[in-house]
Amino acid sequence: MSAVIQPGKVPGTATAPGETSGARLAVRRFLRNRLAVVGLAFVVLFFLFCFIGPLVYSTDQTHTLLDQVNQSPSGAHWLGTDAVGHDELGRLMYGGKVSLIVGLAAGVLATVIGTLWGATAGYAGGWIDAFMMRVVDAGIAIPALFILLVVSAITTPGLSGLVVILGLVSWLVPSRLVRAETLTLKNRDYVLTLRAIGGTHGRAILRHILPNSVSTVIVAATFQIADAILLVAYVSYLGLGVQPPQTDWGGMLSAGLTAAYSGYWWLILPPGLAIIVVVWAFNAIGDGLRDAFDVRGRG
């Protein structure tokens, strides 16, 4: 029975005692990055706040309560109420759930599309690579926000539609990152060996190229989630995002902007701070992951 040779392993050699695996080393490097750890803590707290919070702090976010309009923060309403009587703290949880779900789903979708596109282009090479990357260059030249505004104005998408649109306009940058990684990996010995023994191109991509690009993919996904949350906020702020009675943090900003001029600061400050903190947190995590997976920085 022939032995199976794993990529990067030399036959006849054993793993040295105490040798730390790449994943374990990456975790250690990530945990040494204080900003990344703080960002991760904020993301966890916001997910608990938005998904578990409504179970503890139950509010009515559907019906109009005209007798409780624009009340200032108090013991009954910790962050006050908005122009239709909705509790602002409960609204912040509800809107945050929508923002996080759409941002997470759109970021993952964009990363998946970009990963497959970039891996295919980099592995194929030649005119196929040139054509596919010219498509990417043309897409990057068009601002994603402009495309979002046009499509949203035409179709008025729901949550699932917004996720698809965001994914289709945000996959370009991950595709370039994965392509660059693929150009290096496709010339590795284990990929050349697979091709020499008759392995298919699809198997080479799915079994070797993509698994060895996982660090690049994870980092790209983190930044894509942050960008998607911002894009959702932009579109909703302009009134073209999720439609009432649903809302997100961008929609809350849009609804509270006029009232803020009347001194109702609690309608705009909490959602604005939530967007800033969550986007910063995901970017900090992305920076930490990028440093953790950086082989050149390991020692």
UniProtKB/TrEMBL annotation:
Domain ABC transmembrane type-1 stretches: 96-286
Please give the chief subcellular localization of this protein. Answer: membrane
Coiled coil start-end: none
Keywords from UniProt, A to Z, are: Cell membrane, Membrane, Transmembrane, Transmembrane helix, Transport
* PROSITE patterns the record matches: ABC_TM1 (PS50928)
Family as reported in the entry's similarity comment: Belongs to the binding-protein-dependent transport system permease family.
What is the protein name stated in its UniProt record?
Answer: ABC transporter permease
- This chain's source organism reads Streptomyces evansiae
